[in-house]
Amino acid sequence: MKKVISLTYLFGVVFLLASALYFFASNWQVFSRLEKVALAGSLIVLFYGAAFLLDRVLKGAHFLSNWLLVGGLISFGLSVALLGQLYNSHADSYLLFLVWSIPALLFSLYTRYGGFYALTHILIHLTIYFYLFPSSPFELWTLAHTWITFGVGILNTLLFLIIKKGDIASKPLLYLSLISANLLLMVTAFDNEYSVFFTLFYIVMLGVGVYRFFHKETSIFIILSIFGTGFIIIKMFELMARYVSSLFFVGLLLAAVLLLTGSVFLVNYLRKHSSSRHWTKTIFVASVTTIASVFIVASVFGLLSLLMVNVSMVTLFVFATVFLVIPSTLTSWPSPVKYSLMMTGIIIGMMASVFDEFSFVMFFVLTYVFYVEKRFTARFVFYVLFQLNTAIFLGQTMNLGAHALLVVMMLLNVAVYLATYKKHVLQYGAFLIGFLAFFSLTTIDLSLTLHITYTALFFLTATGCVYFFKKQDRTFYWVSSLVFWFMLIVQLYYDLAWKLVHKSLLFAVLGILFLMVAVYLDRKVGSGQQSHSVLAGKRMGILLIICLQAGWIGYQVYSNETLLQNGETIVLELQPVDPRSLLQGDYVELNYTISQLEDTSIDDNGSITIVLRKNAQGIHEYSGVHSFNGKWNASYEKKPGDVLLNGKVTSSWDNSAQVTYGIEHFFIPEGTGLDVEGKVKAAVVKVSDKGDGILERLRD
């Protein structure tokens, strides 16, 4: 019952936060700007206030008050996003996440609570991501971006080592820093003039990490192995695209042979050392098998293509089955060699059968391999391949559409799950594939009735599975169900079948119901779950951080409202498009006639102030006079009617400069993009005495 109560509280908090996000993103026009600000403020007060209240009421069970405190910080971030929406600030700007990350960092340093650590890490990396990949289409990836990425990767590596040393106690942050470090360092190893250096550096880092954690921590070794395997395969495709030739593919084949030879010696070494864990050996063999199989398959098809050898698909299938798959199952070859040849044969056979549409034959091959092979991991992989072949076969022979195919795959795997006994490999595979097919039904284009039906059924099923398997302590199943549950929440944000505001109201009702049920169960049986209170002895400091958040929101509202009331009105020509922001909903992306300045003699990025003057049609145009990094391009004295507008040069070429002014996004109610796109011709902008602009409205 303790686990049920804890999960119910969690679901209630998540639903309320999702409801707020959906509502703000819908940009519902029933409320005015200030009323929306008041709603955002009320949400912050609700979460923080409830956290302080329940901290006193729930003695010894502080997990809910801790979650609500984190929820308050998330609601602050949603409020920051709402202000950007109300005053048409940059969509998904790194500034949004930077502002949000500051109180998160203060909370982390002050409370040392794991939830704040994880949220801070995510927000800082979102800040960096949107700095490197801004919404503006004019920013280009440069070598400077690569070095920034490299530096952040190194910082994540240092953070990982600090946590491992014990200076920071947070498991989620440990894995977040490890994954981030590997991902960022991988990015630097591709498509730049120093990629050789970055590649060697990352290989050394991986090698040291694998050696360090080979015998000690399986979870870290698994993460490193996954990244290492992915890196080698992606690097292979990059090199193949650059140096494609018969010699390259021969070298690839030799590399696979050398890899398998080396792995044989290492596996023998592991067998002689009892300290080596079973999962360590399994992951190592899986990594070698994946890399070697991809290398061999790529080299075989590459050589056949370059040498223009006319081999029928049936011949290729027979060769793969007779000379690779069957021998690998009947011999006692070392594991890396055995499984690499087996997987190579299966992949070649499946590709050949799909090409000539005789995939039904692969059922016999996969069934044979599954029957002969007894290792759990291998049988799991073969079951997944069997299901993939089933989907291909049904698509080829019955011409099933996506809807019917997904329904058949879901029902088939439900039947397999129910027909197998607990902890059988088929049950694990059927659970994942069945759930994946079910989730896919909520994403495809169907009628509104079917879409809502599948969504509701999926939600009920996922929620029920989380509770059921959590109660039975079947970790794989309840964690998988919870992942699919969150996937649905995220997917619904981008789903266009029904309005965000309607989903928001539904989530609000569900959140309240879940919290009411949790409170009832808590009072009836008592959760008895002891946990440390984040607020213990730190209430005044936390209140100060909350006040800083409130002060920032108040300042932003005051300054923007003042500018809208007192700023000088100008009209600018534009051309719009229609995407959706991560947190702020639908918006129109604007490209002004003044976004590209001709004959500027600017050859660098930096701050710029341009002089605008009104033409006969009432449109403000660039006068040809500007100040770049504080230096005017011509002598200038302000004339009556002149308006100075601040911007930023983001790129320059051929004596032209691309400029952004912070007024490139106009947020609109959900689903109204087509009403705006192509119909509006101008934007009405308010400009302050300092030259800062704020977008007020669009006009035809």
UniProtKB/TrEMBL annotation:
Residue ranges crossing the lipid bilayer per the database entry:
7-25, 37-54, 66-87, 93-109, 116-134, 140-161, 173-190, 196-214, 221-241, 247-270, 282-307, 313-333, 345-371, 391-418, 425-444, 450-469, 476-494, 500-521, 541-558
- Ranges where the DUF2157 domain occurs: 9-112
> Pfam family of this protein, just one?
DUF2157
Report keywords, A-Z. Answer: Membrane, Transmembrane, Transmembrane helix
Q: Which InterPro entries match?
A: DUF2157, GDYXXLXY
Name of the protein: Putative membrane-anchored protein
